Amino acid sequence: MREASAPDRGVRSRDAILDTATELMSLRGYAATSISMVSAACGLPASSIYWHFGSKDGIYVAVLERARVTLLSALPPVEVPGADIAQRLDNFLEAVEDAFQRHPHDVKLLIGLGMVQGSASAAAVAELLHYRDALLAWARDSLSFVFGLHDRPEVSHGLARFVLRAASGTAVARWFDPASSLDAEALRVALLALAAHQGVPVGVPAAAPPHEGPSGA
Amino acid sequence: MREASAPDRGVRSRDAILDTATELMSLRGYAATSISMVSAACGLPASSIYWHFGSKDGIYVAVLERARVTLLSALPPVEVPGADIAQRLDNFLEAVEDAFQRHPHDVKLLIGLGMVQGSASAAAVAELLHYRDALLAWARDSLSFVFGLHDRPEVSHGLARFVLRAASGTAVARWFDPASSLDAEALRVALLALAAHQGVPVGVPAAAPPHEGPSGA
DNA sequence: GTCTATAACCAGATAGAC
DNA sequence: GTCTATCTGGTTATAGAC
Questions:
Q1: In this structure, is residue A65 part of a structural domain?
Q2: For strand C, which residues in window 25-64 of chain B come within 7 Å by CB?
Q3: Which end of chain B is less packed: N or C, by CB atoms within 10 Å?
Q4: Do B170 and B180 meet the contact criterion of CB atoms below 8 Å apart?
């Protein structure tokens, strides 16, 4: 396995560079991460990094792409198991919480690098959007299955957006206080109430009447 | 007013630098914002910026401090008006939504620059923590008043954390899709359900039974 | 594919006249 | 307080031997 003749020396180096860049960029951000830092941290000279990725932006795009694939393949299929809504919702939230805890780098890459407009290339921004859309689509499909919303796509979309925002907000909270976790319990209560509020039968009364517009005062 | 002899030429320049730096840093992040960019954008030479703030980090701390004061003074007092919980909650959420919409720079500074550990000074990180804590305290006190939770601080703290995370997540969503707004309606439903779930009387049945631990399956 | 060496440039920061 | 000019060091990126 060691001294792999040379055929895959390249791919091993490539992976090492990607690992290092992922860690540094998710921790410090794209702009604050320099090629020389990556070089020093992974042991390979800067020119090797350029040979593999062409430019700093090229590394960034590769890092984002791999993070997206990794995170998405760690998520379970959208046909969430469970006999009823409560069970399926618990299973869904457990999957979200699990991925969130196990892939902090990937989550943070998605979140923290939104402020890259102007510093990074259009390709990198497009990859970020792709990343976000893929996560949102997974959440939407899963929640559609959980609540049986095949005929009400706008409701499952709204719930998915809510979950994604809660997860993003928790990721933000996590870099102030690294012990922050997703609080699946609160999310469960909130999602059930939101679904009920939209008229979805969840085996529980709606939490509040629709009430159009803010009430005077 | 113009040609103010010189006494306040200084403070005007200082403010102009702060304005420019706030805009650039909230848009591009701290690391990606250079002194020369600020200099070019506000018209003053780099050495004037150093005269006022001493270092790049000094500008950052001043920007954060002013953002915190601005945002906090834009928030209404915690004695949220309203005859009942529903009215007070609506007023609270309206205040949050309003501040969120009117001060995008300040919100983004708080959010997006969490990944500054290692690039910025301890003073800057401390200022960021101070910022976050002040917002959380305001939300906690307001929600305590809204729901009448003076004797249950841990509940109001949990609700405040939930609101702050939702707002953070929305700020993140906003740099993918600038049209994103806070969705006060969803937040209203979620907060009522969460409060009810904690046994707080909100004039509405609890959304779900406490149910200890995930249900088998 | 990996290395050493270096080009070309821009960053943060300072000196000193005014 | 503001300016011009400049120093130093790190940055992205490349050349060319191996």
A1: yes
A2: 33-37, 46-47, 50, 54-57
A3: N
A4: yes
